[in-house]
## 1
Amino acid sequence: MHKNIVPSISGRTRLACLLGHPVAHSMSPAMHNLAAQICHEDLAYLAFDTDADHLPLLLDALKEMNFLGANLTMPLKTAVIPCLDELSLASRLCHSVNTIVNDGGRLIGHSTDGIGYLDSLRDVGFDITGKTMTLLGAGGAARSILVQAALDGIQEIRVFKRRNQTFETSRSFLTQVERETGTPIRLLDIADSNALARSIADSQLLTNATSVGMAEDPRSLVDADLMHPGLFVSDIIYHPLTTPLLARARGRGLAHANGLYMLLFQGAASFKLWTGRDMPVEQIRSLFTEAT
């Protein structure tokens, strides 16, 4: 039923879209058009391949055509910020926008990446409230995750990254998030194996938000013997579905999750911002399993 999703178009149909480069591979049009069809929403979702130079002109056009809003993917999540009228707290803190809502001609930026990650964990029965997280990486995805986790009630976050030229920049970012959310956040060198071991031992959630473990880099940053009973292991990677990190967690009998449904739930959060309705995620989920 999902192979050829053709939205019903009327004279009242509202539009939403994906902006970025590349976008041809994206599952967002299939996801949102199917959701609109199931929910009987007069909505059609398109994808436009564009770059930062053309973004202001495109956003003006979206306002003129009364679009509901847009999603943004790389390389536009930060470049779009000067074009917007308002930012949500999460998008301001992580300095990233992946969803725009057109509120009567005012463009409001949101970040649903972190929401998608946390909702994907809740979907499998893990709630971060009151927990301690060891987070590997401090890039864009990691920032969105830690900001939303701090806003949603996590107890403490320990961030491990390479001590390179961006280390102090990351420290400044984490200090700001800690100040605005009240959540203790520490930055540590990922090369410090003793600090990593101590952090994992005290954590209930271990999250890999680096590219290590992808098909092109089949390694794990954490040895299996550091994974203790009661630790939930998460990887934002979904190609492959079982990364070396998750394979080690499975071998230890630990609960674990990959990044596949982070995409689904961040899309669900965008859909609700535009329509006020919950995306029927159980009916949409098969799109993701069919694509793997």
Note: The chain has a mean pLDDT of 94.
## 2
Amino acid sequence: MKSKPIYVEIPINSEMEKLWNATQKPELHEQWDLRFTSITYLPKEESEPQHFNYKTNIGFGLYIAGWGKSVGTFHARDESRTSSLHFGTDQAISIIREGKGYWKYAPEQDSIRFLTQYDYKTNFGIFGRYFDFLIFRPLIGWATALSFDVLKRWLEKGESPSSQYKHFFSHWMITFLFSFIWLYQGLVPKLIYMHPDEILMTSSLLSFTTISASFIVSSVGLLEVVFGLTWLLYKNKRKLLGLQLILFPLLTFSAILANPTNLSHPFNPLTFNMSLFILSLVGFFISKDIPSAKSCKRVR
């Protein structure tokens, strides 16, 4: 089991100094890079590398604090720049023990090819190596790529990193919520328990026998499960949100038509589906243009 170094590359249409400052000044760097919560430069001697401390919050009041040192190199021949990096932490809870890497800024005809490659040693022996290979390395590689796209959009379009991340995480929270709702609604009341209210509503609306209504409920439950899985697998979430803007009013009208007394129940179809309709509408607007790790090249 040999892990490959993490490699991420993206073209950025920006001035070199602007890109250099956004990646080398701590107060700018920590805004767009998901891997760091804070970066603090230490006093620097002229002939020494730039030493710094970093902190990454990992939730539940816990954080990883580490050290690093970087050296910037200017290449007059092709006007490119390189920033080499050595980093690590002494905290026992960190999967990363120590690592090295670099950033490269390579001017091209109408953009700068900004790329990084880095690798590291892990803690926790063979368990740490397996955890890194299966979970942590893909996750931190994804976080690096997403951060690079956020940086690109910040420099090219002027979108602040905080605004981009709010849209990104809101979009995925809505995605997972709708996936859960459709899976739950299909599995629990229709396929697993076959709730009597589901059968009664179907038979009242369509004038079917109990057996036929039970078959319809099971079929609808299966469709809802498929739709819930589609939320996780289908790339264009905006189309799914648009479809729900049509579905929820229809489902609300059908439920009320089948049994008007539903309106007197707590959490009835009107209030429930109206909430989901509004959430779909919000999701439809915020999902129009969000950052993505897929914008980056991941293989050297």
Note: The two ends are 20 Å apart (CA to CA).
## 3
Amino acid sequence: MPRMRRTVTLIGLAVLTMLFAIACQGGGSAIKVGSKDFTEQFILGEMYALVLENQGFDVERKLNLGGTPVAQAGLESGQIDLYPEYTGTALLTVLNRPVSSDSQQVYQTVADSYQEKYNLVWLEPAPMNNTQALVMTPEGAKDYNIKTISDMVDQASQLTLIGPPEFEVREDGLPGLKQVYGDFQLEKFIPADPGLRYQALSEGQADVAVAFGTDGEVSAFNLVVLEDNQNFFPPYQVAPVVRQETLDKHPGIRDALNQLAPKLTNETMRRLNYEVSGKKREPAEVAREFLIQEGFLE
């Protein structure tokens, strides 16, 4: 009898251990949504998480991971299942491919390459384009009669440009601009952090600033975005990048997030970004409010 009791006890322990392991695996089945470390990514990551939760998925947020290499490594290792990425970043930073301004070609290149190289899937891209742009105040653009980058180049020797330090050396910065628009010389280039650019522009310390297409300040300050009339800057459309393994387990992710994509335009993202960067609201609150307005949440 003692031996039988001991056998039953061992079987019981084995069953409990197995149930515990299953429970642990179940606890790990949450879809891990990541983001990089800036305002727009916080908002988009929250949107993805909220949309998926509303569809009944268990979601774990892993936002504010860091820059592109950290987020990409997290995706490859399975520490996250998906995060918002930009087509231009994937093309230039992750894949090290040449610059291209054809948005459809860029999307197809990164989608095919990610599938082949990393077994990662790009869902539908949003119409928004967070590419680099050159902006001026309405007064400055009017004074110099500048509407396009070609107009700016014609008067470059009179103009001060403020932008990130790397803009002076990157192929999608000044060197590339000079190749496409002709060799020009600015009166001055001021290297500066993002937060200082708009302040310098509004205070007249610079005539032109390097911006990003969906920066909240572009709309909030009514800035003039110079037309890239030679189509130099590469497209930076955003889309969820998802592990194939995760999509196989949860195919509903595709439809849920693809329905969100068309709503994310430049104007929308500028407005939402400024709610956070300008009005200091929480990204989660801004994301939820938008999704309620658009009928994704009640």
Note: The first helix runs from residue 2 to 27.
## 4
Amino acid sequence: MLLMASLLGACMPRQLLVNSAADALTAQGQAAEEDLGLAREASAFYLKLSESLLRQSPGHLPLAESVASGFTQYAYAFVGFEAERLVSTDAKAAHLLNQRAQRMYWRAHRHAMAALNQTSPGFSAALAQPQASRWPVLRPDQVGVAYWAAASWGAYIALSKDDPDAVADLPLVGRLAELAWRTSPEHGQGALASLMGNIEAARPGGSAVKAAAFFDQAIAVSGGQNAGPFVAKAEAIAQAAGDRPAFEVLLQQALTVSAKHADLSSQIMRQRAQWLLDNADDLF
């Protein structure tokens, strides 16, 4: 018994140290960074270190959210975006980059779902139940992780359109996002409502009117200060409808908003909005 007590006593300070480091890394991951190049260079080390700590403390929801968001944003801004820019000139290189982005999206999703299952045992199994009454209940402190779990999952599926098994999971993505949205519809300054809009627009038989309403809700929730919903609405609604004037107005709004904020998400959206404007002739 004395031996067991000493072993437990040795473990407790180590776990406290891991949790303290996780808290510090989470705070660092939320720091503003306006230089995309510097953010890209620093991300690899930060993500590997954070991932290593998360494996030792899988139920640390803030760190899980930071890791999932980090991998998802890295894949979106630096890997998938580069593939889009290369596809017309080097299809093979673009394909390889998309495969890498796909792996990173799945990595983000895996970490986020592991945290949800750690903090709510059986979460994934409950999510897959056909009866709504048996779906999991999402706590407010799980919403951020659920958001990134759904966002990374949806992005993974978007790059897996030739895989029927992956595409078949799209309803589960919508279900997970809706659980988060019902719990905290204003999460992420409208980011969650915007995700709902993207899912509705991508869903077979989805309603463009309903999707647009989600995007408008996202813009209203942020007070028009989040560039993401403007870009998302431009691509999912205006571009899909062939409405170039609306497309350009929305992207100009995104540029104006993103210029006022130094956080990484705003700079990612600014970069994408400008690229979409520069390539509008090819998109319409």
Note: Residues 157 and 269 are 21 Å apart (CA to CA).
